[in-house]
Every structure is written in structure tokens, then in C-alpha cells.
Amino acid sequence: MKSYRPRTKKGQVTEFGAIFSILICFVFLPLINLSFMPVRYMVAQGVFSELSRRLGHCEKYTEAQALMKNEKWWSESLAMCGVTLNKPQLELLVTTGDGARSAVFSGGNKLPDEWLPGGANSVPTPCIYSIGLSADCTIAALYQGPFAPAVIKVSAHSQWENLSKDPTSHYYFINE
User: Fold this and answer.
1) Beta-ladder partners of 92
2) Is pLDDT above 70 for 5?
């Protein structure tokens, strides 16, 4: 006569399937969802770096301001990537050659004479001029669900290239 032995391993496959589906739904999918946020941040930083480089190559500061306002490729490309811009600002950072003093000028303010090339602050060593772009960016995950979008300040600086004077007006291009 045969003896009947109960199988003890029969229910493990169904238990594994349930745990595996919980693991996928509550661990892996949210991690994949959140992994889009650093990628979108890197895209925003790359766009800001490219735009600040283009702004640094402008001949006049007013041209840089007009380029930032009129060119929409950068804000549209960020919007397509899921990044929303809030209050983009253009600023001019001037630092003395030894790094002891610095000043930030924004909103179309003209540089005072002491910060211009050849001014009082650039006597021992010339000043370093850089143009910067900064904005508060709202970066969202792939799908919102329980995750709120992150608000991150993104900024980029590039050296201002044109430190010469306008031959007709004899003013520095950085102040025009």
C-alpha cells in the first residue's frame, strides 16, 4: 500500500507571484518614475549652460537681454522635457582679479565706473566679468501620483567675451 505524503511546496509559486507583483508595483515602478527627475535636471542644466554661453558671446548687454527675451527655443525645449520655468533672471557678475570683492548687477543696471575695465577695482589685476542666468525650475516626475514636483534653482555662468569700447559712442559694450 502506498503512503500519501502531502506536498509542502505547492503554494509557494502563487505566493511568489503575489510578492513579485507587489515588489514591481510598489518599489520598482516608483523608482523608475523618480529616476526621470535627475535626467530632467541634467537637461535643464545643459540648456542653461548653452544659453549662458550664447549670452556671453553677445556684443552688447542689451543684445543679451533681448536674446534671452526673444529666443524661445530654450523655454520650449524645457517645457517639452517636463520642466517649468519660474522667474528667469539675467545677471552680470563682476569679480576683482584677486577674488577679494565681487558685485552682481541685474535688471539692466549699468556698471559703475569703478567696475568697468580700467576702473578703480581693476587697477592691480583686471576684473573678471561673467554673465549668469538663473531660474526656479519645477521638475516633475514621469507621472505625478503621490510625488509632488520638485522646485530647484538652476543657474549657469559664462564669461563675458566683449570688454571693448564702442568706437562711435566710446562707451563700453558691457554698459550698452
Assistant:
1) 105, 131
2) no
CA angle 99, 117, 120 (to 5 degrees): 70
Cα dihedral 118→123→125→131 (10° resolution): -40
Mode of pairing for the β-strands spanning 128-139 and 83-95 = antiparallel
> 50 pLDDT exceeds 90?
yes
- Residues sharing a CB contact under 8 Å with residue 116, sequence separation 6 or more, in sequence order: 122, 172, 174, 175
Domain segments of the chain as ranges:
13-175
Cα–Cα distance measured from residue 144 to residue 34, given in angstroms and rounded to the nearest whole number: 10
Chain centroid, CA 93 distance in Å? 17
Q: Give, in order, the Cα–Cα distances in Å from 158 to each of 1, 121, 124.
A: 89, 21, 23
